[in-house]
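Incident log, structure service

09:12 report received: a user says their structure output differs between two submissions of the same chain.
09:20 pulled the input from the user's history:
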Amino acid sequence: MEIDMSWLHKAQSTLVATYKKNAEGIQLNWSQLTKIRDIKLISSMYIWIFLVPIAVKVLSLTSDIATVEVFKYQFAIHLSLPFSWQVFYFSALSFALATLLYQARCPRIIKEYPTYSSFEQEGKPEWHLKEYANDIGLDYVEYREGIECAMEENDIEYLEGKEFTQSLFWSIHHKADRERNASFTICLSAYVIGFILIGWVVMQNFIWVINYLAKSV
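09:34 re-ran on a clean worker, output below:
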């Protein structure tokens, strides 16, 4: 008897189509990497590049069980936990590489001003945007004139003063967000690798703890 599997193929096609549609709606950019970089735990991971070799050396000289005293109470800590120092080290290395690349290649306007209000709070005038435009290879005067012409062609009411500065800021900010694609891809990949490796370490030890508790019952 032949089983009709057409429903499975239809379900797979629907799932793939839905995934593609959602993926197309996700546009990664430098601003999103800024949110990752601003996580203290991530930005300080480079410290472990130096601490891991020291920790491994110290633990190699100890027994499987260490006794720790806190407020006159003693606790036995199992050092045999299958913590993968190599994986953790390369995770820290990946995060450090991503952070360094971000600092070196992320457009300045993205790093320094995530919003127009942060730019305005420092009291910077419109002409200060020139250096941020030059940072991503834009001719500021030509780009500014281009925006003015676009407003006229599309019958958009001409903006002046703060409103025009805000419009110009977001225009440059939006363009900078999608510059230096190669550096962005490498930086994003380094962050992804770091998260995968640290996730592996966490999962490995989670499984060990569950198995250990199961044996103790």
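09:41 both user submissions now match this output. Likely a transient worker issue. Closing.
09:42 reviewer note: The chain is about 70% helix and 5% strand. Residues 113 and 119 are 6 Å apart (CA to CA).
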